[in-house]
Design brief:
The protein has 285 residues and is an alpha/beta fold. It is built from eight helices and eleven strands. The protein has helices at residues 23-33, 46-55, 59-67, 71-76, 91-101, 133-140, 217-240, 262-284; strands at 9-14, 37-38, 40-44, 112-119, 125-128, 150-152, 155-159, 178-186, 194-195, 206-207, 245-250. The strands form two sheets. Strands 1, 2, 3, 4, 5, 6, 7, 8 and 11 form a nine-stranded mixed β-sheet that branches. A two-stranded antiparallel sheet has the order 9-10.
């Protein structure tokens, strides 16, 4: 069967959301596999990490690495930050990623890239569009309480998701055919945590009963509270600056730190992209 190629340029905005952001890999992979040309990309927090790696043409290498991650390896990459305003310094994971991907100047990347961060002192939204790629990513993923603030050219920067969880604004002026917002905080509904279809099973991907860890403890409560605020901010900002298409991942798809569930998240992103773009194609026919 001949694959239908869509000669369409797209600009995705990839949202924040911890390990659920691994679904962005599946979305981006589906777009490129189906003939969509990504000329610009923006992201906040985990979305900035995936977007930056893609812009550097290293998404396949990153996907292969994250698919092999085990729970113990994730824990070992966390470097405690005793006496600092955050549980972890984040330098260990940045070092691993720099060695895996290589560091680049953002302005030299083959795809236009914007990482969004938050200025700790002023509360301003900061668009990082030049300088070292992993410095920008480190700033954008500086989740309060979890990672220490990032010192970036004299400014202390925090997670971009605090002010713009799904940063569509950096890409709306680009001359591409379609702008796509990818959110990883959709409401909990019939879709429960996703598991790939078992070999030989009938039909498409199936879902399992919800397997959720009860919210408890200081960090879990803080993250859940922050996500509730970010969801409201995202809804308001996307209403004010609407994308052409939104692809949503349920917020109960996996836990915030469950980076060892990459296979499930990537498959879910792939599936949701196929559903959304297929519906858009049918609607435009």
């Amino acid at each position: 069967m001949t694959k239908v190629v869509h000669p369409t340029t797209v600009s995705p905005a990839l949202g924040s959301g911890g390990a659920r952001g691994l679904a962005h890999i599946g979305v981006v992979q589906w777009l490129t596999e189906n003939g969509y040309e990504i000329r610009s990309i923006a992201g906040a927090s985990m979305g900035a990490l995936i977007g930056g790696v893609f812009a550097a043409s290293k998404l396949d290498a990153y996907a292969e690495w994250v698919l092999a991650l085990k729970r113990r390896q994730v824990v070992r990459m966390l470097d405690p930050a005793f006496g600092h305003p955050g549980l972890f310094k984040g330098e260990r994971i940045m070092g691993v990623l720099r060695n895996l991907i290589g560091d680049f100047a953002i302005e030299d990347l083959p795809v236009s890239f914007t990482a969004v961060a938050t200025d700790l002192e002023s509360g301003e939204e900061v668009w990082l569009r030049d300088g070292k790629l992993f410095d920008a990513i480190r700033a954008s993923i500086a989740i309060p309480l979890i990672f220490t603030p990032c010192d970036y050219h004299g400014r202390k920067l925090l997670d971009g998701g605090l002010v713009n969880p799904v940063p569509i604004e950096p890409i709306v002026g680009d001359t591409n055919a379609v702008t796509i917002a990818v959110t990883v905080s959709d409401p909990i509904g019939p879709m429960q945590p996703f598991f790939p279809r078992a070999p030989g099973a009938e039909g498409g991907a199936h879902v399992s009963p919800a397997v959720m860890t009860p919210v408890g403890g200081m960090i879990e409560v803080a993250l859940a509270s922050m996500e509730a605020m970010q969801n409201t901010i995202a809804r308001l900002r996307l209403a004010a600056c609407a994308p052409d298409l939104t692809i949503g991942i349920p917020r109960n798809a996996c836990g915030f730190f469950e980076f060892w569930r990459a296979e499930e998240m990537i498959a879910l992103g792939h599936e949701r992209a196929a559903q959304a773009l297929g519906a858009m194609a049918c609607g435009g026919a």
